[in-house]
Amino acid sequence: MSAGRVVVERGGRVESEHRFAWRLGDGDHDEQAFARSAAKPLQALPAVHAGVLERLGLDDRHLALACASHGGSPEHVARVAEILAACGLGVGDLACGAAPPRDPVAATALRGTPRRIHHNCSGKHALGLALCVVEGWPVDGYLEATHPLQRAMADAVAGALGVEAPAQAIDGCGMPTFHAPLAALASAFGRLAGGGLGASGARVAAAMRANPALVAYPGAIDTELMRATPVVAKIGAEGVIAIGCEDGRGLAVKVADGALRALDPAAVWAVREVLGLPIAGAALAALEQPAVHNSRGAVVGRLAVAMSS
């Protein structure tokens, strides 16, 4: 069985439920989904292969931000700004649009109006722009599917997925996103974490493992999984997460209705029960069974995984 339910309990009774599917890298290709931001580590591969980091004096912190759906904290914003400065560009060159910080702490602390650099995808856009500068590609129109940047990213994603020309649509940040079998996404992350995507993939995986708080923010499921277990993990919008192990195994999870509140318990369950990795620590325990609070802050319920019959 490769499906389950995350139930919302209140007063000891089930109030709502969210169904999810999971696939291993060697599973069937029946379940498909848009990878959304889970594709970011794969989209970063062309820049790493071209030596952008070395040529512009950047490091693995900047690479982790390029793979991130970051929280918009001052540190995140600073690293993105450094990428832009290194290639002679500025915040105005980002085409991702403005968005509030994902990290609730950063969102509360923000003074003034959110800018493009606060968008959780700004790191991906910044490293993409850096690749354009290094390769002599035009900066204008870099979101277009026919632009050399997008062609390079699409080829890298297709190669990692093992899917020829996966279907595309427009992601929330304006770049293309890719539709593929969950098993193919799982396989790609297994290869990413296990060294199967070559030196560039190994560099991406190492950067994410070394800087988990830059890939999202403290309390986020992908950050906390990478802090507590030897995996590479990346979420995507609409309830997607892809996880790769050092031994080459991969796992992908998709919440059917896209509810992000269900993704955390589904992911923790899948890492423990499907991948067989030990789960420890207060952060993952809180994500495994998130509390439901009322407007006064009292705990009135919880979310938890209940396997489908």
Short description:
With 309 residues, this protein is an alpha+beta fold. The chain is 41% helix and 20% strand.
Structure description:
This protein is an alpha+beta fold. The radius of gyration is 19 Å and the shape is globular. The protein has helices at 40-43, 45-49, 52-56, 60-66, 74-86, 104-109, 122-135, 148-161, 182-194, 198-210, 212-215, 221-228, 260-273, 282-288, and strands at residues 3-10, 13-24, 32-34, 167-170, 176-181, 231-236, 240-245, 250-255, 291-293, 299-307. Helix 4 crosses helix 5 (74-86), helix 4 (60-66) packs across helix 10 and helix 5 (74-86) runs parallel beside helix 7. Strands 6-7-8-2-1-10-9 form a seven-stranded antiparallel sheet. It has a three-stranded antiparallel sheet with strand order 3-5-4.
